[in-house]
Amino acid sequence: MSTSRVLVVDDEPRMCDSLKLLLSHNGYEVHAANNGHEAIKCLAEKAFDLVFLDIVLPDMDGFQVMDCINQNHPDTMVIIITGHVSMESTLRALRKGAYDYIKKPFEAEELLTKGKNAIKQKILTCENLYINRKLQQSEKRYRDLIQNSPDIIYTLDKKGNFTFISDVVEHLTGIKAKQLIGKHYTTLIYQRDLEKARFFFNERRTAARVSHGELRINVCKDNNRPELCGVQYLTMELKSTGIYDKPTAENPKYLGAYGVLRDITDRKRLEAQLQDAQRMESLGTLSGGIAHDFNNLLMAIQGNVSLMLLDMDSSNSNFQKLKDIETYIQRGANLTKQLLGFARGGKYEIKPTDLNKVIQNQNRMFGLTQKQIKIHDRHEENLWIVEVDQKQMELVLLNLYINASQAMPKGGDLYIRTENLIIDEDSGHHHNVPPGKYVKISVTDTGIGMNEAIQQRIFDPFFTTKDIGKGTGLGLACVYGIIKNHEGFITVDSKENEGSTFSIYLPASEKKIINGLELFKDNKNSPTVLLIDDEHMIVEVGREILGILGYNVLTAGSGEKGIEVYRQNKEKIQIIILDMVMPSMGGAETYYRIKEINPEIRFLLSSGYSVDKDASKILDGGRNGFIQKPFTIDQLSEKIEKIFDPVPA
C-alpha cells in the first residue's frame, strides 16, 4: 500500500513542525504551508490524501482554501484545526465538506486516530466510486446486449405483469415496450395460445428444469411496418425461468419470472413449405406409379379392342359396344393424364410458345360453352416467350376455367391477365425458384371464394369440395404438377364470397418461336420393327397390330433380350418401339446400348408415363418419336409414319 500524502496548513511554524514530525514518524509523507496561498500552490503541485487545515490564516481564511479543494481536488479529505473559533464556524466548515475537526490544544493520539479514519474514509469513497463506475459500465454493457439482441427479453413480477421488456418488441410487433410495462403478459399473447402461455409465463422452476416451447404473440394492427401488413401473429420460441430472492435458500421467496422470446416465424414457414413439398412429392410418386400401371392395363384392352374392330363390320351388333369401350378407355387415359400432370411425370413436346395465343384460343373455346360467364382478357403486348408443352398449358387453363365456372354457378366474370415480371432473389427463394424473367398468368373469378383451410389443400390430389360423383379432385392437382414440371410455381389468393385468383409464374425463354421443323426423308420398304416391352399382353397385342399394319415384327420382353435380338437382326431392323419403364435394364440404358451398335437406328419411345428427363434427352437428339400408352392402331401408325416419312409442319 502506498504512503499517504498529508498537507499541514497553519500560520504557526512551531505547530507545523510538530505536526510534520508526528505524522512523519507514523508513516505519512508530510508537506507544510504557513498561509492560504502556499496551501493552494502545494495542492496545485501535488495530490494530497488529507489536509489538516487551520481556519484562521494571515492572508485568507480556511474556508477559501476549502473552496479551492472542493472545486479542484474533491477526493482530498479535510480535517479542521480550530483554536478559539466559534462553533458556528466549525459547523460551517463541516457543511463545506470537512471530514472532522480538532480543537486546540489536542492530544497526539486524537489527531492520529482522526487522520487515520479520514484516510480510510477516502479509500472507501474511492473504492465505492470505482465499484459504482464499474457497475454502471456493466449495466450499460448488459443493457446494450439486451437492447441489441434480436430476441425479446422480459421480466415479470409474481402477478405476471411486465417489469421490463426489451425494445426489440416494437421492431417485431409494432407494440412499444413502454406500453407493456405494468401490463399483464396476456396483453402480448395471441388469443388462441393463452392457455398454453399460462404454463410458460407462470414458470417457477430454474436451471435445467426451466420451460421452453412455442407460442404466438400479437402483432399491432396499426404498425408502420409494410412487412407486417396483414400479419396477425408471430411464432416465437420461449424459454422462461423463475426468479427468487435467495435461490439457494430452503424456502426462497418467488419474485417473478425471466424469459426470452425468439422469433421463429420464418423457420416455421420454411418447415411447413418443406413438409408440403415432401407430401406433394410422395403423392406425386404414388400418383405417377398408379397412372403408369393403369395405362399399361388400358393399352392391353385398347389393343385387343382395336384388333377386334378391324375384323368387324360396323353393322355387327357388337361393333358399337366395342366403340363404347374405346370411349371409356379414352376417358380412363384422360384421367391418368391428369394424374401424370400432378405427378410431374414429364412433358410431351416442349417448344418456345406465345402464351397470349394459347390463352386467346382457350378463351374462345371456353366462351362458346359457358355463355353465362363473361371473359375479360388483358394481355401484355410484348409478352416474353416461354418454353412449354402447349397441350399441357391448354389443360392447365381449361382446369382453371372449369374451377372458376363451378365457383360461379349462376354466372359471373372471369378475368385473364398476362404480364412480364422480374422475380428478385428474395421472392425466388420464397418460392424455391431462381430469380430472373418470368411470365405471369392471372385467372380471377367473382365466385364464392375459399377459406384458408381449403386453400391449404386446394392442390392436393383427390381433394374436392364437390359432392360425390361431381368431381375427381384432380384438376387443380394436375395444374400444380404441370406448372412445377415447367419449373414455375402457382399461388392462390381467395376470400370467402369475394372470389379467387390463381397466379401462374413460368420462366421466360430467350428462344424464338419456330414455325417449321427440319425433318428428314427416308424410304419405307417393308420395314422390320423390334418391339421391346416387359408387359406380355402388350407384346402380344403389339405384335398383332404391327403385323396388321404391314410391318415385320420381332419382340423382346426385356432390355437385355432386346439388345440380343437387335444384335442378331441389326441388318433388317429399321425401327425399335421401346418401353421406357422396365425392370432390371430400363429403356434409357437399352437405348444407349443399342445406339452403340448402330448410331443411326430410329426409336419410337413408349411409356405409361409422359416424357421424363431420359426420354426428353433422347428426343432432343432427333430422328425419334414418343407415344404414350394407351394408343390406338391409328395413333401408332401415324407415329411410325412420321419417323419413316416426316412431313414438314
Condensed summary:
With 649 residues, the protein is of the alpha/beta class.
Question: Considering DSSP H and I runs of 4 or more, what fraction of the residues is helical?
Answer: 40-55%
CATH class of the largest domain: Alpha Beta
Question: N-to-C terminal Cα separation, in Å?
Answer: 105 Å
Low-confidence stretches: 515-524
At CATH level 2, the architecture of the largest domain is 2-Layer Sandwich
- What CATH calls the topology of the largest domain is Heat Shock Protein 90
- The named CATH superfamily of the largest domain: Histidine kinase-like ATPase, C-terminal domain
Mean pLDDT across every amino acid position: 81
Number of strands: 22
Overall morphology: elongated
Keywords, separated by commas or semicolons:
4 domains; 44% helix; alpha/beta; 649 residues; 20 helices; 22 strands; five-stranded antiparallel sheet; Heat Shock Protein 90
